[in-house]
Amino acid sequence: MNRIGRWLGAVASAVFVAGGCIAAAGQASADPCADVQVVFARGTFEPPGVGGTGQAFIDALRARTDGKSVDVYGVNYPASLDFATAADGVADASNKVRATAAACPDTDIVLGGFSQGAAVAAYITEDEVPQGFALPPSITGPLPAEVADHVAAVALFGKPSSGFLQMIYTGAPPITVGSRYAGKTDDLCITEDPVCSPTGSDNNAHNLYVANGLTEQAADYVAARLDGQQPDQSVAQTAGQ
User: Fold this and answer.
1) Residue 120's CB: how many other CB atoms inside 10 A?
2) pTM given for the model
3) How confident is the model at residue 142 (pLDDT cuts 50, 70, 90)?
4) What DSSP letter does each residue of the chain carry, written as one string?
5) What amino acid positions are annotated as catalytic residues?
6) Measuring CA to CA, how many Å separate 54 from each of 103, 126, 128?
7) Which of 47, 97, 161, 197 gives the lowest tally of CB atoms within 10 Å of its CB?
8) d(CA 154, CA 56)
9) Strand 151-157 to strand 36-41: parallel, antiparallel, or no bridges (unpaired)?
10) Would the pLDDT of 73 be above 60?
11) Residue 182: predicted pLDDT
């Protein structure tokens, strides 16, 4: 099996092993269910938690949720230059979403991520594992289809393009938002950002999602989804400096 087969196998195995005990763990918890559960993956080298872009997005979202309770979960993964370890984040985020959907079925889940974290968040929305990779027959993708109904919105900032991804990890699976999530995803990329934009050439642009107001823009989009509105689909949205 090649490196990507092992990468996907590790993700599937981690999700599969943990999946059996998620519902019981959720039922045993005495914590009340929040109205909104944000699951956010930070960018490379950011300290554990949700990172600067994630915190700005969450602060903006809380200001728009009209008294709703908002719980926040920072995806647990290395966020290092070893992109293969993003698999840890995929498994952790997937397990958190599953646990929330099982224990708190009325909670609206919001997925999000910045940079490498955006890759983590997008990977768990995939419809299926790419063909040609050996996985347990019971695993058809990182998240079961029924969980999609519990996810109200997805916010991605600076998601790595295929070209950039291949530069840092040859043979990595392409990052594609799954069909069940594409219509509720705000995929934001600054035009000059070389991480997400094929024409980008300004490395500093990758750090400007807060300064450019795109975290506020994403919060507007997500808040509208939480209110039952259907804002314009915002996949592959770009903005200049």
Assistant:
1) 33
2) 0.82
3) low
4) --HHHHHHHHHHHHHHHHHHHHHHHHHH--SPPPSEEEEEEPPTTPPSSSHHHHHHHHHHHHTTSTT--EEEEE--S--SS-GGGHHHHHHHHHHHHHHHHHH-TTSEEEEEEETHHHHHHHHTT-SSPPTT----TT--SSS-GGGGGGEEEEEEESPPPHHHHHHHSTTPPP----TTTGGGEEEEEETT-TTT-TT---GGGGG-TTTTTHHHHHHHHHHHHHTT--PPPEEEEEE--
5) 115, 193, 206
6) 24, 22, 27
7) 47
8) 15
9) unpaired
10) yes
11) 94
Q: Is the pLDDT of residue 38 over 80?
A: yes
Structure tokens at 195: 């991480």
Sign of CA dihedral 167, 170, 171, 175: negative
* Cα gap 102→98, rounded to integer Å: 6
Token digits of residue 113: 């991520």
Burial tier of 61 (Cβ tally within 10 Å: 0-12, 13-18, 19+): buried
- Note whether 16 and 49 are within 8 A (CB): no
Tokens at residue 211, please? 């300064």
**Mean pLDDT score of the chain:** 81
Contact by Cβ (8 Å): 159, 117: no
Residue 81 · residue 44 · CB < 8 Å: yes
Single-letter code of the amino acid located at 188:
L
> In this structure, how many other beta carbons lie within 10 angstroms of the beta carbon of residue 216?
18
